[in-house]
Amino acid sequence: MDRFDAVIVGGGSAGLAALMELSRLGIQAVLLESGKPIGSKSVSGGILYSKNYPNGRVYNVEDIYPDFLDEAPVERRITRYYLNALSGSKVYTIDLTEAHEYRTNFAYSVLMARLNKWFAERAEEEAAKLGGGIIEGVHVKDIVWIDDGSGSSSGSSSNSGSSSGSSNSIIVTDELEEFGAKAIIAADGVNSEIALISNARGKLEPEALYQGVKCIVRVPEDIIDERFDLDDGEGVAHLFAGDISRGHNGGGFLYTNRDTLSVGLVYHLDSLLKSPIEPYNMLNEFLTIPVITNYIVDEVAVPKELDRTLPKEEQLRIRFGLSRLLKEYEGLRYTYYSKHARLDAIRQGLYSSEEEIKARLEEVRGKLEKEYGVTFANNYVEVEYACKLVPDGKRAMMDKPYKNNILFIGDAAGKGIFLGTRIEGINIGIDDAARAARAVARAREMSNFSEDYMGRYYAQLVDESPYTEDIRRIDFEYMKIFVRACKSIPLEPFPLFLRLAFMLIQKTIVQELASSIARMMDQSTLLKIIESNDAYVKIPMEVAERVGREVKPIAEIRPLSIDERIGRLKIREDEVPHIRIKDPKSRFIKAMVHLCPTKCYIMEASEEVSKEGAGAKARLKAVVSNVILQHEGCIECGTCSRETEWRHTRGEKGIVYEYG
Amino acid sequence: MNHDKDVINAAVMVKLEPDLSEGNVSYNPDGTLNRSQTKNILGPHSAIACKAAMYAKVCYDAWVSVCSMGPPTAEIALRDAMGLCCADELHLYSDRIFAGADTLATAETIKHGIRKMGRSIDIVFSGHRAVDGETGQTGPQTAWKLGFNFIGNVIDYSIDLESRMVKARRKIDLPGLYTVIEDVESPLPALIALDPSYRDNYRRVSERLRYARLMKEASRRAKDYKSYLRVWSAKDLGVDVRYVGLAGSPTIVYKVEKIPKAKASRRAKVVDPSNVEALREVGNLIFNIAFGER
Description:
The structure holds two protein chains of two kinds.
Chain A: E1 3-9, H1 13-24, E2 29-33, E3 47-51, H2 61-64, H3 68-71, E4 77-87, E5 90-95, H4 97-101, E6 104-109, H5 112-128, E7 133-136, E8 140-145, E9 169-173, E10 179-186, H6 193-197, E11 209-218, H7 221-227, E12 234-242, E13 250-256, E14 260-268, H8 269-274, H9 279-287, H10 290-296, E15 298-302, H11 312-336, H12 339-347, H13 354-372, E16 375-379, E17 381-391, H14 393-396, E18 402-403, E19 406-408, E20 417-419, E21 422-424, H15 426-445, H16 451-464, H17 466-472, H18 476-485, H19 496-506, H20 508-520, H21 523-530, H22 533-547, E22 549-550, H23 562-568, E23 570-572, E24 579-581, H24 587-595, E25 601-603, E26 607-612, E27 619-624, E28 627-629, E29 644-646, E30 654-656
Parallel strand pairs in A: 1-2, 1-10, 2-7, 4-12, 10-19
Antiparallel strand pairs in A: 3-6, 4-5, 5-22, 8-9, 9-10, 11-14, 11-17, 12-13, 13-14, 15-16, 18-19, 20-21, 23-30, 24-29, 25-28, 26-27
Helix pairs in contact in A: 1-5, 1-15, 11-13, 15-16, 18-20
Chain B: E1 9-14, E2 16-18, E3 40-42, H1 44-60, E4 63-69, H2 75-85, E5 89-93, H3 103-115, E6 123-126, H4 138-146, E7 149-160, E8 165-173, E9 179-187, E10 190-194, H5 205-223, E11 229-232, H6 234-237, H7 276-291
Parallel strand pairs in B: 1-4, 1-6, 4-5, 5-11, 6-10, 7-10
Antiparallel strand pairs in B: 2-3, 7-8, 8-9
Helix pairs in contact in B: 1-2, 1-5, 2-5, 3-4
């Protein structure tokens, strides 16, 4: 049987960083990822931060990958950060760039499926030097611990110097022969199966989770630059709060990528469960708000309806000719409206000058109009729809991020900093990864991979991380900057009592006072205020209505239906279902009919059941409806995992994200 | 010649074939293949043979040599094969004398080539057949000429280095009846012809890692394939010119015919889906065919 010092389960940004770090520390490590290619199941919002703290260090992405800043396929460097209060077509924008820059080295918008492929290349190269590497398309389904009789699985007596029974583990997968692992790093994400298999924690509570839905909208690079007033390579992040949630707690976001926009919504899952609503419908409402529409709108070719009375051959000829020409048109357009693509095309000798590209573009456009009757209209181009559960660190973080010989990192350990407008996750997973790698290195040195030694040492390293402190406690420095940014809100239109309250908050002395009071307050009491419906919905609406500017839509768009969205996703169906409903009649499962982002849950036609009334002659008629699950189309977000037997798909199966 | 007990020397025979995948084929007006217009690639069955050789490299650390008989352009096939099996050597048997060879004459050339590989070959991999010849005889005939055991339609195999035996699983389709899976065992040397359904299946972590590493090395070597390539003439191989090329080919193709399409004997009737009676009739018909008396 093969046996390895370290096995990493999950090839997301955290797992890959662990592989890279372990390899650099001289440990032969193997990473298993169920998706193929690697990165195909990764989704993020997504902004990747690099941070610095005055006391205590964090491990940043550029520490793990030294050539990150020069080589990594990141999208845009986020240099501006805004919070938009919305009410109808009214918007009030608050500049939060200072809060965004707080303890930040840099931040990039990223598309995780792509970036993880680059991380994987680097990590695999490093791992191969020691005989380790990455294995794609393998799903870990079980871990077995063999007690070798030398010690108990945990407890104080096992600190004998040699590895205790609990560290003698065998990994069971769907695809490979069993193999041994001395240390296991669980990086299998928010829906960690390893956490459940090992009993390290139970399923995360809805209160500790957010559901995020996102779509990637394609807009040519130069148009993004112009629309958001950006210099080359620069990017902007917009957050949205107000009347976009139908009263749920959460908000929206729009990040600029190189030639796409990441647009989405994030809501507290418990808030959604209280009054379930279809996430794709909410997304569509969001996309059609004037301010969003104006950001995502683009000119789109609209082919003429094909004349069905024509002979079959003629119809085919038109269809082929049109699709070829449309493809050329699109390629040309994205080339022409991108500085880099334009220069590349000229450098490669495809065109001699920019004018030539433009001339060709216009020629093709003319041909489309004249020969095929194509018209051009305003709409938007959505290229990928995605959904992900996000662990809310303050409620989801594991107290003990270890069990037996397993160390939990990133989403699997419930990590993430979410405090109002502060949103960080990827960087924390990377920091965890570096710490876990160090714990494994130390454990190997002492040849003790036990929970008592390696696990505790890892927990100690995690405790030293400034991120841990930020997850546990509200950072008042950040809050102060946030409040200062809100000073820009003009107060005249507000009723006197609100004005007074605002003015008080805006006074520096009062700020200090408020933050000292806040410091004295119980953390959870404070969170109730920060994450209240007032903060998410009512106050932003009030601000937008009273002082917001009116935004007129420059065009109308037609958002995709959920069926169109699913149709565009690449999903490798598995004949074996990976989710099983436990109770088809439960309230939770019924909520899934609305909350599943790809409509996998369907209410079955109600059946009428007759029941004998206890002691009564009258027969009670009850309508009992069952919920059934069609796992085809599942994108493995885990929204339904709480009351189902939920597993990731087997190796190579399931969703394949291209952008992520 | 080295023959350590646990060393496996493998050879793969591949063929340059027209790319018959969709969109790449060009036909003459008379319906025959336009060879000059159609791109040539490593044949798909040859590619499967390469994958099987890669398996030997991954699992048994085999030394692998790939050979092909064909025009100078056939080095393209060898390059592609290199990218699949990370070969240690490439051999191209190219001579005007070889032209017009049938399967038997080809087998004769390859026999000489394999014997001149500088190592005593334990196992030869070949594809099931070529896409432009379709008779599937070159493999068996080469085995016969080499005096190797022949195992055809192989879907899985393993080698016991101790006893120097190869265990192979064969898939035998009996048309109209059923499919038989047969496990056979043969001493080395042997020639294995892979069934088109062969898939490499690496079940161990160490194999997967080794495979990934070798595939990287393979693409590196494929870029530099010329430095692994040796081209042999008839003289280099020392063949008897009476047994190779057109002269050595007993097969005479006297006519190529298109197979006429059989006339459809089916009759179709359109049924209105809203007509329950008509649908019931369809249901009955299906039921009778499936479960009723014949």
